[in-house]
User: Fold these one by one.
Assistant:
Number 1:
Amino acid sequence: MAQSKHTNTLPRTVGEGLARRGVSRREFLQFCTTLASMMALPPAMAQTLAQAISKARRQSVIWLSFQECTGCTESLTRSHSPTLENLIFDLISLDYHHTLQAASATAAEEAREQAMKDNFGKYLLVVDGSVPMANPGYSTIAGISNVDMLVETAKGAAAIVAVGSCAAFGGLPKAKPNPTGAVAISDIIHDKPIINVSGCPPIPVVMTGVLAHFLTFGEIPELDPLGRPKAFYGETIHDHCYRRPFYDQGKFAETFDDAGARDGWCLYKLGCKGPVTYNACATLKWNDGTSFPIQSGHPCLGCSEPNFWDAGRFYQAVSMPITPVEGLAGAAAAAGAVAGVAVTWHNRSKKAQAKSAHVTLGVQDLKK
Amino acid sequence: MEHLALLTFVRGPALDWSLGLCAAGIILRLFETLGLGRKADLAKPRDDGPGSGWQTIFTRSIPPAGMFRRDPLTYVAGYVFHFGLLATIVLFVPHIEVIRGVFGVSWPGLPGPLVDVLTVASLVALILLLVHRFYSPVKRLLSGIDDYLSWVLTFLPLLTGYLAFHHLLLEYTLMLAVHIISVELLLVILPFTKLFHSVSLWFSRWYNGDINARKGVAS
C-alpha cells in the first residue's frame, strides 16, 4: 500500500525521481560528467552538478508555443528517448505545454495560471516560435494573442529560454518579407534573463544542459553576444567538423554525387555554412550522437544563426556574391563608357583649344 | 548590426556596388587614357621587329643589368609580394568561388596552409617595401599620398584575410565581413590610384616596347 502511494505521487526532487526510475548513481554521475564536459566546466564540477541536480526540486516549467512548427518539441522529446537526459527532462515539472499536456481548452489554461500562481518568480518559461506583431490575430491560444500571453507569463518567470531560432531570432516566420511581422522573444521582453537556444531545431542535449545548469547554479550560463550559451555556441561547426582536414588540403566535393562527395571531402563549395555557424552539431551530434547533417552528406544551412534564411542561397559557397552580377556588369560598363566618352571629349576639346591657341614663333620673334 | 547580417550585406549590395564602381571606373580610365591618342609616327621605323611590344610586357619584369645588385630588396620583395598576392587571390578556394560567382569560371586551388604561407610572405614583403620607402631618400621623395593609400588598401585585405583564416582578433563572421569590406574598398579605389597599373600595365608596356622598337631604342 505504501509502495503504491509512493509511486503515485510525483517525485519531490530530481534525485528521488531518478531513483524511482531505476537510474543508478554510476549512470547519473556519468551523465553529470558528460554535462560538465559539454558545458566546459572543470571535471571536478561533475560532483557538484550531481549533488545539486539530485537535490533540486522539480523545476516548474511553462512552455509556450507561438509561431512554430513543433520541430523543437519533436527534437527535444523524441531524440532523447530513452537516454538519461530524457529522464531528467521528464523530471522537471512541465506544467504547461500544448503538444505534450493531456489537458485541453480551459483546463489547459487553468494549469498555466495555477503554475504561474504557485511558482511566481521561480518558474522557468520556455518559448518556441516567434511572435507576430503585424496583427495579434495571426496566432492566438485560447483567444489570447501570443504577445499578451508572453508578456503575462514572463512576469513571474525566473528566466526565459527561447528554444529554436524562431523564438531566439524570429526564424523562418521572420524571413523576408516577414508577412506576420514576426519578432524574437528578446524583442518583446527586456526585463528578464533570456537564454537563446537557437537551431532549427536545437540540439536536444543543449536544452538539457541549459536546464541542468539552471538547476545546479540557480542562474543562467555564460552567454555569447547573441544570448546563446557559450558552452554550446562558442565555436563554429567548421572548427570541429571531421571534414575540416579536407578543407585545409583543398579537397572539395563539387557535386552531391561525385567522387569527392563519396570520399567525404569538404562541402564548402556546395554551400556549407559551417564556417559562420556557431553550434555544437559537429561535437554533440544528433540522434544520440549518431550523426549530423554534414556527416550525412549535406552542407550546414547555418540554422542557429539569426536570419539564416535570408543570408544567401543554401547551395552557394559562403564567399560567393549573393546576387547575380551579370546585369550589374552591363550597367556598370555602360555607365563607365558614357563617363569615359564625356571625359575623352572634354580632354580632346581642351587639347584642340590649346592647339588653336598656339602661336608659331619664328627666328624674328626670338630676336625681339 | 548583427555579424551575419553584416556579412550578408557585404556579400550582397555592398559587393554589387563596389564591383560596379570598379568596372565603371576601369572603363572610364581606359577611355580617358586611350582617348588621348598619339600623333601619327610618320618616320620610317628603324628595326620594327615584330613582337617587340609583346616581348616588353614580359622583359620589363626582369631587372635591367646591374639594377638587381643595386637594389635587391625592391626586386625580391616586389616579386614575393606580387606573386604571393596573385596566388592568394586566384588559388585560394574561397576566392575561386567568388570568381566563379562573378565570371562563371573556376579551377583547382592550393591547400589552405600553402596559401597561408604565401599570404604571410606577401605581408612581410609589403612591410619591408614600406620601410624601405621610408628610409630610401629617392623613394621617399617620389612617394605621395597615392602610394601610401594604395599600400594601406592592398595590405588590409591580406591582413584581414589572414586574421579571418586564423580566427584572430575578431569573431570569424565579423572578420570575414571586414575582410570583404577591405576588398571592396580596394576595388572602388583601384581605378583611381596607382593600383590601376594592374590594368594599364599590359598595354602601356606593349606601347612602350613597340614605340621604342620603331625608334630603334632598346626597351
Number 2:
Amino acid sequence: MSKFSLFKDIADFFSFKTRRLLTWAVVVASVAGMLYWHMPAMARSLFFPAYFWLITTAILSSSRFFFDFARTIFGAFIFGRRYRPVPFSNPEVEALAGKMGVQRRAKVFTTDNPHVQSAFTNAFNSRVYIPTSWVRSFPPTEIIGVIAHEFGHIKRGWRSVLEFGIAITASYVFFVLLLELVYVVPTIIFDVGYIAMAFLIASFISWRTEYRADMEGARATGPEGLISMFEYWKNRFPRDEGSETHPPLSGRIRRLEPLLDESMPA
Amino acid sequence: MKFVLNGTAEIVMQPARFKILKLLKERGPTFLEQIAKQTGVHPRMVSHHIDVLEGEKLVESKYELVKLDGSKRDVAVRTCWVTPKAEEVMKDVRESVR
C-alpha cells in the first residue's frame, strides 16, 4: 500500500462541488472576518477556531489538485528532461495551423514522458505536447481534433493571459477596498480571502478558456474528433465533475453538439 | 489478447463505437442513418466513427441506391457491415474486461 494512500483517500473524499463550496465559504468568511474587531467578544472567540478549521478543510480538500499539479509541473519540466520530445509534423497539422492562423508560432511534439498524461500547451513558447501513447492509440482524426483544441489556446494566448491578470488584480483590489473600509483587520484574513477569491476566479477563467479552445478547434476541424475523445475519457473516469482547471466532459460535449448540426468546415 | 496489446481494442472501447459495432454485429449490414436512429448517436458522429473503424479494417462500407419506405426515387445510403477482424477484437475486449 502506498504511503500516500490515506492522504489520497481523504483528498478523494471531497467531490469537486464540495471543494468549490469550501473555497467560496473561505471567501465569504474572509469578508465577514474583515469586521473582526467590530464583532462582539463572544463572536470573536468563536470566529477564529471556526475560520482555522474552514481553511484547513479547504486546503486538505484541494490537496490532491495541488499535489497532481505540482507533480505534472515537476515531472514535465524538471524530471522530464531526459524524455526528448519528438517533433510531430505532417501536412494535416501544418494545414490546420495555417487555417487557424498559428503556423508561425505553434509547434507540435510527442513525448514519452510518463508524467505527461494528456495533451497540453506551454503558453510561454506555444509548443503543444501530446503523449506518444495517444498517437499510438487514437485515430488520426481525433488527434487532429485535440491539436485543434490546443491551437485554440495558442490563438487566444495573450487574451487569456490578460483575462487572468485582470481577474487576479480585480480580486486583490476588491479585498484592498474592503481593508480600507474597515481599517484594522488581521492581515491573514485579507491574504486568505484574496487567495481563495483569486483561486475561484482563475478557475472560472480556466473553464471559459477551455470551452473557447474547444470551440476554436471544433470550428476548424469539425467537432467529431473532440466529442469522440471526450466520450472516451468520460467513460474511463469514475467521476465526471470537472476540476479546478477543466470543466466536466459532459458539459464540453453538450456545448460542442450544436456544431454537429452546422455545415462542415471548409 | 493481441488486439488489446496492439491498441486496436482501445479504438473499439470508445463507447459510441462499441455501440455501433455491437449493432452491426447483431443486425448485419445496416446503413448509416439507421445506425444513427438505433444507437441515438448523431449521424455526423456515426459517419466519423465508421471512418475510424473502416481505417482499422473493423468495418467495411459502400454506397448503394435503395428504395426507402414511401420514397418513389432511389436514395443513396452508406451501408456498413462488420469484418471478421471486428468479431475477434470484440471477443478480445470482452475477455480483457472479465
